[in-house]
Design a protein that fits this description.
The chain has 494 residues and is α/β, with parallel strands linked by helices. The protein is built from 15 helices and 17 strands. The protein has helices at 36-53, 102-115, 159-171, 196-199, 216-228, 244-249, 278-293, 312-328, 361-366, 376-379, 401-405, 436-443, 447-455, 463-471, 474-479; strands spanning 12-22, 28-31, 59-61, 70-75, 86-90, 94-99, 131-139, 145-151, 176-180, 182-183, 186-187, 232-239, 299-303, 332-336, 349-352, 370-373, 421-428. Helix 1 (36-53) runs parallel beside helix 2 (102-115), helix 3 runs parallel beside helix 5 and helix 7 runs parallel beside helix 8 (312-328). Bound molecules: ligand TNX. Residues 268, 305-306, 336, 353, 380, 382, 393, 429, 431 line the site of ligand TNX.
């Protein structure tokens, strides 16, 4: 197994053959004095490593003395390495991780984890030795937005399950968790001014199970957990379509004033808020206001996809109004690509997902709109791997590991270069995914490929090199008890 099987591939790696740094009982983790965030990053790293190694790995502030037998986290005090960049140097005595910002230390810590044997990810004691290969890594991301979306509306997932998903994102240096919180089949976030959204609208799911929702306190716990790992949560309230759960909870949101029945099927496109009525905008102001207050990140996702019951004029007017409500609450709007039918504010972001559907994505980018790229035939984690996959859908075809990996954001859309691309994001729609094991099986091993598309320099990416590095992660997932698909395209070690 290659010692340097880092995913996503770093900008540069120089191996010092034959040199190893072995973690032992006297190894310490040192953090820069005066930075609580860097200390927290050190503690998180120690927490992961202690479980399997059983080593004490005490975390303390560095002093003027030479670090000695230590993993030493340092902040450069300048912006040279960027927000998320880092340098890692491993000698026979010390591992030094340097970054300009705490986020960079967190990214570098993921590289360090991946350089240790796979068993380090186990949650119970394992035999060592725990050796890091000597050498140097210099690294920084290509794109600022590297995300994954989890659909908790079609099937509900618990706080603990979402936290585990966040852990897995962080390991691959993904920094956005987009939570699809509302859809026809369920409303998953408590809104104090509209309690029935969660208690009634959240009380079922696809297939008719009990559903569920997050209280605001639980939701805040998810957001804080993500934030500690330098993952920004982008919450989505999908409007004006995909709103049956809301239409079932409040009769006044329907043009005919009659509450809809709850919905547990999987059709799309049939529901819409009543866009001509003032009550609708009061509702949105209340919902988005509460969501903004729960959101430290800059973005609120307002959906906007697959509306089949409105005219183009009605749709565009609605989107223009919604993005102003988002702005009034101090946030920027992001929406699915259909929103490019409307006149967008300069900082509204559009999320590209399918070449077959509407919107005018390329024109919008000429007028300044930036894109998050989620091309379904590459980035949709709910598509089947092949005809034998029992879970998932296939409307965008089959997406094997190679398909998810072998594409480039700067050549995806004619006339849209890197400067219009904010980043990439994978989608995990959960119509067919009832259990978190199902989510993991569809996510791994495809998501690390999307992470590499978003992080690594285009010039160095080769499928043949990638599949070998990826193979080394199979045992890592096994150690973490992650349920993954053993794609025949990847040379798994056992
Ligand atoms: C399309 S992608 C949808 C979702 C479905 C998904 C299934 C997008 C913006 N909308 O409502 O869950 O396909 O793959």
């Amino acid at each position: 197994m290659p010692a340097w099987a880092i995913v996503p591939a770093p900008v540069s790696v120089e191996a010092a053959e034959g040199t190893w740094f072995t973690l032992g009982r006297s190894t310490r983790i040192l953090t820069p004095p005066g930075s609580a965030e860097a200390a927290a990053a050190g503690e998180l790293l120690a927490g992961v490593l202690r479980r399997s190694t059983g080593l004490p790995l005490p975390v303390s502030a560095a002093t003027a003395a030479a670090p000695g037998d230590a993993i030493s986290l340092e902040l450069t005090g300048d912006g040279r390495l960027g927000d998320e960049g880092y340098e890692l140097a491993v000698t026979g005595e010390t591992a030094t991780l340097r970054a300009s910002r705490p986020a960079g230390l967190s990214m570098g810590a993921q590289t360090l984890r991946q350089l240790l044997p796979p068993a380090v990810e186990a949650t119970t004691l394992r035999p060592g030795p725990w050796r890091l290969p000597g050498g140097r890594v210099a690294d920084r991301p290509r794109f600022a937005w590297r995300g994954a979306m989890l659909d908790v509306a079609r099937h509900f997932f618990t706080v603990a399950e979402v936290k585990r998903f966040i852990d897995l994102l962080a390991l691959y240096k993904l920094n956005v968790l987009h939570l699809h919180l509302t859809d026809d089949q369920g409303w998953r976030i408590a809104i104090h001014s509209r309690p029935r959204l969660a208690t009634h609208g959240g009380s079922t799911q696809v297939g008719g199970g009990p559903g569920g929702h997050y209280t605001q306190r639980q939701y805040a716990e998810i957001v804080a957990y993500a934030r500690d790992r330098y993952v920004t949560v982008v919450p989505e309230v999908d409007v004006p379509g995909h709103t049956n759960a809301a239409l079932a909870s409040y009769a006044e949101l329907n043009c005919d004033g009659r509450a809809r029945r709850r919905y547990t099927g999987t059709k799309v496109g049939f529901s819409s808020l009543c866009v001509e009525e003032q009550v609708t905008y009061r509702f949105l102001d209340e919902v988005l206001g509460e969501l903004a207050a729960l959101t430290p990140g800059p973005y609120l996702h307002v959906g906007g996809d697959e509306v089949q019951t409105l005219s183009d004029e009605q749709y565009a007017a609605f989107v223009e109004r919604v993005q102003r409500i988002v702005r009034a609450h101090g946030k920027r709007a992001i929406g699915w690509q259909e929103i490019t039918k409307a006149k967008l504010l300069p900082d509204t972001v559009a999320q590209y997902w399918d070449h077959r559907i509407g919107g005018d994505v390329v024109r919008a980018t000429r007028q300044g709109t930036r894109l998050v790229l989620s091309p379904a035939e590459r980035a949709y984690l709910d598509m089947k791997y092949d005809e034998r996959t029992t879970l998932g859908l296939e409307w965008a075809g089959h997406v094997e590991v190679r398909d998810a990996y072998e594409w480039d954001p700067s050549t995806l859309l004619d006339g849209v270069g890197d400067d219009r691309v904010l980043g990439v994001e994978s989608q995990l729609w959960s119509e067919t995914l009832e259990r978190i094991e199902d989510v993991e099986y569809m996510t791994f091993p495809r998501l690390p490929g999307i992470a590499e598309v978003g992080w690594s320099p285009a010039a160095g990416r080769r499928w043949d090199d990638y599949r070998r590095r990826l193979a080394a992660h199979g045992p890592r997932w096994s150690a973490m008890a992650v349920h993954y698909y053993r794609s025949p395209q990847v040379p798994w070690p056992d």
